[in-house]
Amino acid sequence: MTYCIYHIPGKKIGVTNNLEERVTRQQGYTEDEYEILDMSDDISYISHREIELQKQFGYRVDQKLYKDLKPKNEQLNHMKINVTEQTTTFPCPVNKLKGRLMDEVGMSWETEHGKCCLDSESIKWVMDNVKPSMYNKDRCYVYNKAFARYFDNNGCCRTNTGALNMSGHGYMPDRFDLIRDWANERGLYDKGDTKTQYLKLMEEAGELGRAILKNDQDEFVDAIGDMVVVLTNLARLGNTSIEHCIDQAYNVISKRTGKMVNGTFVKDTL
Question: pTM (2 decimals)?
Answer without folding.
Answer: 0.39
